Amino acid sequence: MHFSYLLIAALFSPINALPASSSYSAPAPVSRAPGLLGLTDGLGKVVDGLLDRIHDETEELTTAVLALLQQLDEVVPTATPTSIEDVATILKGIAGAEPTTFIESVVSLAKNGLGPGSFEGVFKQYSAGSNSENNVNEREPSKKLYPSAGDNDAPYSIDEETLRAAIYIPDTFTYGEKPPVILVPGTATKGGLCYEANLAKLLTKEDYADPLWLNIPGWLLESAPWNSEFVAYAINYIADITSQNVSVIALSQGNLDTQWALTYWPSTRNVVSDYIAVSPDYHGSILLDFLCPKLTEGIVGCAPAVIQQKYNAKFIEHFRSVGGASAWVPTTTVYTGTDDVVQPQHGTNASALLGDDRDVGVLNVELQLHCPLLSPALVGTHESLLWGQPLQVLIKDALTHDGPASIERISDWNDACSMLAAEGLGVADVVGTTAAVPVAFAAMFLYDKKVLYEPALPAYAA
C-alpha cells in the first residue's frame, strides 16, 4: 500500500465497520463537507500543496506528515480566540455526532491559533520544568517498593530511579496535609502540558485535593504496559511518602495504563481511594485507524501505544479478557459522545463504559445522557472535558465521599452543565488545554521508534 494512499485515506476515508467478532457496533460513517473544513485560501493552499507533493510515491507516510507539520509552522492563523466563547465555537466545528478525523481537527485548530509555538519543536518545548522526566524526588519510602511492593505484583522492567524521576511534585504539594491526587496524562502528552491549565490549577486551591502529575518518558507512545509501570510505582510511592491513600485522575490512554496497573500490581488497589477517568478508551477507538492504517512491509508504522489502542488490538482484547474493563476501585468515568479521538463513545457501546463486576462502585457519565438538552457541555471534544465544570463537580463529589461520584448528590449539576468553562479558568487556560491536541498529533509523527506490528505483551501477561 503506497504512502500517498494512506495519508489520503486518513484524511478522507469513512470509518470501517467493526468486525463480526466484536461486541461493539460502529457508528455511522463520517461524512465530510467539500474542502478541508472550509479552510481559507492561505492554509488551504498550504495543505493542497502538500497533497500535490505526496503523489510522489517514493516518499513515506511519515515524511508527508512531517512536511505538513513544517508547513503548519509557517502558517499565520486566520483567527485567534479572544474569549472562551470563541474557543467553544471552534470546537463545535470539530466535535459532533459524526466527528471529523484527528488530522482534520488538528488543521482546524492550527488555522484558529490553537496550535503549539512550533509543531516541529514540541519535544524540546515540553521536556523541561513542569514537563520534565528527570525530577529529583529525594524522600525515601518507609518500606521497600522496588522490585515489588507486594508478593503478587508484576515485575518492573524499568529501574527505580527512572520510575521515580517521572513523578513531578509541584512546590505547592503538602506531602500529606491534603489528600494526594495523581494526574496521569494521555497519549503523546506530558503531565504539565495536560493539566497545568485546568485540573492542577483548580485542585491546588481546594482542601480535598493535592495534585501532582506524571511525565512518562516517551510521551506515553511506548508500549502501554511499559507506561503502566510508572503509574503503578507512583501510586505506591506517593501513598507511602504521604502516609495517605491517593486518588488518580487520568486522561485517555492514561486510563488504560491506570487500569493495567491496578490489574497487574494488586498492591496499588489497597492505597487508591478514588479513580476518575476522563475520556477513557477501555475498548479502544476505531478512529485510530486513520493514524495507523493497515501496516505493510516498507511502510513506516506507528507508535506502539497508538497501535495498541485500536479497537481490534491484541492489547485491548487481552485487557478485557483479564477484567480490565471492570473497576478495581471506586471509579467515576466522564466522557462525551462527540469525542473526536475515541469512538464509539455513546450508550452501551461507549469505549469509556466501565463495568462493576467486583461491586466496588462505578458511575459512568456520558454527558449527553446526563446534562439537560442544549447544555454547552453536550458538544465537547476529547480534551475539553478537562476545562468543563461538570468534571470539576464530579471530582469534588467523588473525593469528598466514599465510593464514586453521585449526580443525585450534586445540587448544582444542571448549572454545571450550563457553564462554558469551569469557575476559575479563563480564556488562556482553555486555549492552553486545547493546544495539547495539536502537540499530541505532532509528537505521534515525530516519535522515532515506530513499529510495523503491535508489540508482544509482557511475559507476566502471557
Automatic annotation (TrEMBL):
**In the record, which residues are listed under signal peptide?**
1-17
Record's keyword annotation contains Chaperone: no
Question: Signal: is it a keyword of this entry?
Answer: yes
**This protein is called what?**
Alpha/beta-hydrolase
Which superkingdom is the protein from?
Answer: Eukaryota
For this protein's source organism, the top of the classification is: Eukaryota, Fungi, Dikarya, Ascomycota, Pezizomycotina
Q: Which segments carry the region annotation Disordered? A: 130-153
The UniProt keywords, alphabetically, are: Hydrolase, Signal
Matching entries from Gene3D superfamilies are given as: alpha/beta hydrolase (3.40.50.1820)
Which GO molecular function terms does the record list?
hydrolase activity
